Every structure is written in C-alpha cells, then in structure tokens.
Amino acid sequence: MRTPHIGLLEAGPLGGITDVAGVTVGHCTLSDGAIQTGVTVIRPHAGDVYRNKAPAAACVINGFGKSIGLVQIEELGVLETPIALTNTFGVGTVANAQIRAAIRANPRIGREEPSVNPLVLECNDGYLNDIQALAIDEAHYASALDACSADFERGAVGAGRGMSCFGLKGGIGSASRIVHVAGQAYTLGALVLANFGRLPQLTIAGDAVGRTLHVKGDATHKPEQGSIIMLIATNAPLDARQLRRVAMRAAAGLARTGSAYGHGSGDIALAFSTAYTAPHDADFIAVPPLLADARLDPLFQAAADSVEQAILDALFSAETVAGRDGHRRISLNEALKSRP
C-alpha cells in the first residue's frame, strides 16, 4: 500500500513543514538497546527567537501532557525559543538546555531583561524506551538544534525514535499544502510526533485498515494512553487569535485517522506564522495586513489535511524497532504484508 495523498490541495515541493520558508528541523536520535529515544527541534526562523519572537498559539485537545511553556504562549501569543520535542521524562532537561542557549546568546536574560519561556512538548515513549534511565541530556538538544535544516528525516528518528502509533511503530511525520487566499498563494506545513491510537481504530484515507491487521502482542482492548504533538507552520499573515483557530483544525485531521482523543492521551496542537516577528525591544510591532477571518477556510482545510497526511507519513516512514525488555513495534509497511 502506498501513502495516499489526503485531500485536494497540492503539496509543497518537500512535502513537509519546511516548505514554509525559513522553518528548519533537526534530530538527535539515541538508539542503543533499551534506550530508544531522542530530541527533535523545530526552528521558526534562522535568527534569535528570543529577540525576534514568532506569533503562535496552542490548542489543547486532551490535556494528558507534561509540556513546558504553553501557559505563556496562551497569554502572550509568541514563541521565544525554538520548539523542542522529546520524551516525557526529558522535558525538564531539554528546557534547561533551551534556557542555557538563550542566555549564551543574550547574557542579560533574567537580570536586566525578562526571563525566557522555553517550549518543550512531549510524548511517552516508555514502551520501547527505558524512560526511567533519563537518557536525554542537554547536549542532545544542542545536537538537534545544530542539525536543523530544510531536509530532515521522518519516522523513527529524533523524539520519534521510541514512539508507538496504533500499536505499530510511530514517530515523526510531516506534510504541507499550498492554498490560495485573496489572490495570494500561501504554504501551510505540519509536523507531528505520533504516539497514539489503538490498532482497530487505524483509518487510512477512509479505509479502516486497522481492522484487517493482526499484530503480535497488540493490546487491542486496553484504553488509549498515547499522545500526539501537532505543529503547524504557515507564512500566511495571522495573529495569535487566528493561529489558535488554525491549530484547532488539527483535531479534524487527527480524528480522520481513527483517534477519539482517549482519556490518557495528550493531544496538543500549536500553530505559528513566519509572516512577521515581534522584536523584543520594540515599542511598536510592524504587522502586515492580516487575513480576514472570513478568508481562513482554505487554511483550516490545509491544517486538517496536512495533519492527517503527516500522521500517515510517520507511520509509512517508520521502521520496525526493538527496545527495552524485548518490546518490539513493527512498522506499518511490515504489518501490511500480512494483510489479507
């Protein structure tokens, strides 16, 4: 089975979040026996995000999560650091790494200038990864940050190394869509850290594929306890309120794959715009003309389609991984070989 194209909108040339100009992604992957984890970093632009903040907003679909930084984003509507993804127990360490990096670039932080708001989002990779080993250290964030580029790997890499999705191997997936609004072409891209779902729920482009798959050790009757982080970038000129509306549409793409946002699932979407920045020292912020709310429907569609596509991309890109205590997650491609 080939990865289907979701929806009618055209994809960008890279088919990923980095089709939005200026956005880059980097990974640091740890793969050694029981340690199957990592860090993924998304940079909204190439500059200092503390000094030139990116407009952003988040939407918590189901809040079984341990992220850092969402409260200030809700209040102020901007990013102050790159976005970091990792496992649940690595959040504090990665946040410290972000703070240290910001202080190195801006030694007045926390003294003459305000503190910095680190942003770390997580999923629990404890089935494959020995999460109690606390294997993530600050150098892994620095490595992922240094690796950021427009061309990046998907699947069982970075923060996605130990993740599971629909009882199969999950991980990092990405997609993009081109939209035309008010005579202008805009790009919207998504990146997901997919770690959710039960196998019978898996739906691919409307096909209830999961019901036809039989995976050894699948806990079909256990409640859903996974999570997903959904990041959306666009070069469309939107403010934080509008970006939150776009982020909400990630839930539509997630639902189409079969998720019902279970009690134990941490489902968080965050959207940001690259159309302008908010300078740290400015008295006034130069904002381009914003799209009217009545013109946002194409971006809503693109958000839903690209998130659904990104989840499928994570599944189709992932390889089979063995981890702690003999636990194993087979890839979707391997599982499909035994499909009747």
UniProtKB/TrEMBL annotation:
InterPro entries: ArgJ-like_dom_sf, Peptidase_S58_DmpA. Keywords: Aminopeptidase, Hydrolase, Protease. GO terms for molecular function: aminopeptidase activity. The keyword Hydrolase applies. It comes from the Bacteria. Pfam families: Peptidase_S58 (PF03576). Belongs to the peptidase S58 family. This is Aminopeptidase.
